[in-house]
Amino acid sequence: MAKTPKKNAHPGTAPAAAPSGGAGGSLVPQQTYSNIGTFLRVPRAHDLRGADHVFLGIPYDTATTFRPGARFGPQATRLGSAQLCELKSFPHGFNPLDYVKAVDYGDVYFDHSMPHTIPAAIEETAAGIIKHGCFLTSFGGDHFVTYPLLKAHAAKYGPLALIHFDAHPDTWPETEGKQVELNHGTMFHRAVKEGLIVPSKSVQTGIRTWVDDKMGLTVLDAPFVHENGARATLEQIKKIVGKHPAYLTIDIDCLDPSHAPGTGTPVAGGLTTAQLFAILRGLGRLNIVGMDVVEVAPAYDQAEITAIAAATIAYDQLCLRAIRKGAKSQA
Ligand SMILES: [Mn+2]
Questions:
Q1: Residue 168 C-alpha to ligand 1 middle, in angstroms?
Q2: Ligand 1 mean position, distance from CA 175 (Å)
Q3: Phi then psi for 205, rounded to 5 degrees?
Q4: pLDDT tens, residue by residue, 44-83
Q5: Distance of CA 50 from the midpoint of ligand 1 (Å)
Q6: Domain 32-324 has what CATH class?
């Protein structure tokens, strides 16, 4: 367990932890509004010894089919996290960083002028992190980045259940060819065909665009959530996934554009942040082995609505990891 940081002197000031170059799990001492750009103000580190949770940015957006801009998503999501570790977590009443040693790895480095080298760069970076036994939370980037992330996780954990929140199923058929199609709407078609995900254990929630072939995945579309509520949706997800090793991927456009305007392919009629949090906060007993939050495009955002939602999603899952490590929730 990480050393408990000293109590905040004043709200708005991070706990006065000593700066750390390694996996301290403690906060860099600075005002919340002075966030220089790590998620939750945890230390930035490439040395993962002792770390059990790693945040990684993937600033890639050239697979998007509509508005570009998600390359700035990791930066926006980090800034959107600035207030989240100021107080104890809600609704749990603990600081997750007292239980989970977390670091921010920075962003994947790739050569944008060599587009077909990018999937391997993402996959190799992710594999190099999770080989240390760390849980990886990645920030997109457009949703294509989930394909190399799935490859890295499936290589370690075997074929995965996909727990997928999105306006789009992303199982549209890919143009047949030797190379991976750099398209943020076809990668789960490929993932099924390559055996990276197990369709019968996988579920897509919030969908409100059409695809003819659902590739065997269960779809709980947005009207299902609106008609049946978050609790019934959660129960369905838990039933489908069971204890299978699962990868959680959240396209921020699962939210309605009123709750997440800053995204590349918005679709009306989506979930509210309250509905999404009610579902996601119930996933703690599932065997989730990795996750991402993608498609935050801050140029279209207003007052950080989208960035704060994305940051809170990742923070919520960090709290669930803390509970697995012994934190007692007061929720
Ligand atoms: Mn989408």
A1: 4
A2: 19
A3: -120, 140
A4: 999 999 999 999 999 999 999 999 999 999 999 999 998 8
A5: 35
A6: alpha beta
